[in-house]
Amino acid sequence: MDLYEYQGKELFRRFGIPTSEGRLASTPAEARAAAEELGGQVVVKAQVLTGGRGKAGGVKLADDPDDAERKAEEIIGLDINGHVVRKLWIEQASEIAKEYYLSVTFDRGTKQSLYMLTTEGGVEIEEVAEKNPDALARLHVDPFEGYQPYQARRLIYFPVRAFNTAAMAAPRMLASSVARFSLAIASARAPPILGCVASQAADAASKALPAERHSHKTPVAISAALSREGA
């Protein structure tokens, strides 16, 4: 199952994960109208089922509606890794304090679901895995065992040595986000085993920390991705 960014964010919103407001557009005129409605700076983002769109010129910041229309003209029809851009997501620009990456995919080698979490969001996950592998926490979940509280604690806190001082508060803030993310995955049209594991993950993550921690309400900027090889 492949999801466009705008579809994934709609799924996240249904489960309380904070996302920036945006509008779908398929023409430069629609991009202009969306920018006018949103107000301020916007980001014009190509909607394609592949990675690397930023480096390919598929994500551009626009200062006003006129600029959004121009950027849309540049992006629509662009070929990104064999995917031609037909749709755009026009999103309010955000002041990013910190980015995290959280994903769930299916590891065909182990035949298990694989959760990946890092405080180094905003870049290609392959780059993190290659240059700083200790900063990427991985957790395989046996579908027959299910996602357990001790596994949630391991995912959120390990490897702490790879997190810098400023990032060490991240695990506490991420607990509820891991739970909501898992619920969102479970609600999608995923294979039964993956959906079962994700729903169990939501319950386990919510139990992984004391109540005063997982009830934290501060929005967390997450860079979350569904791998094309996964759900």
Protein architecture, described:
The protein is α+β, with helices and mostly antiparallel strands. The protein has two domains: 21-92, Dna Ligase, domain 1 (2-Layer Sandwich); 100-226, D-amino Acid Aminotransferase, Chain A, domain 1 (2-Layer Sandwich), CATH 3.30.470. 37% of the residues lie in helices and 20% in strands. It has a four-stranded antiparallel beta sheet with strand order 1-6-2-3, with helices on one face. Strands 9-8-7-10 form a four-stranded mixed beta sheet, with helices on one face. Strands 4-5 form a two-stranded antiparallel sheet. A hairpin with a 2-residue loop joins strand 4 (79-80) and strand 5. Helix 2 packs antiparallel against helix 3 (65-75), helix 5 packs across helix 7 and helix 6 packs antiparallel against helix 7 (192-207). It is elongated, with a radius of gyration of 18 Å. The protein starts with a helix and ends in a 5-residue tail after the last strand. Mean pLDDT is 76; it is low at 160-169, 189-202 and 205-231.
| Strand coverage percent | 15-25%
H-E string: HEHEEHEEEEEHEHHHHE
What topology, given as strand order, has the largest sheet? Answer: 1-6-2-3
CATH top-level class of the largest domain:
Alpha Beta
Radius of gyration: 18 Å
CATH architecture of the largest domain: 2-Layer Sandwich
- Counting DSSP H or I runs of 4 or more residues, the number of helices is 8
Main pleated-sheet profile: 4 strands, antiparallel
Would you give the CATH topology of the largest domain? D-amino Acid Aminotransferase, Chain A, domain 1
Which structural class matches the secondary elements?
alpha+beta
Helix percent reads: 25-40%
Number of strands: 10
**Overall shape:** elongated
The tally of structural domains comes to 2
Q: What's the pLDDT, averaged over the residues?
A: 76
Please state the oligomeric state of the protein chains shown: single chain
Low-confidence stretches: 160-169, 189-202, 205-231
Task: Give the N-to-C terminal Cα separation.
Answer: 6 Å
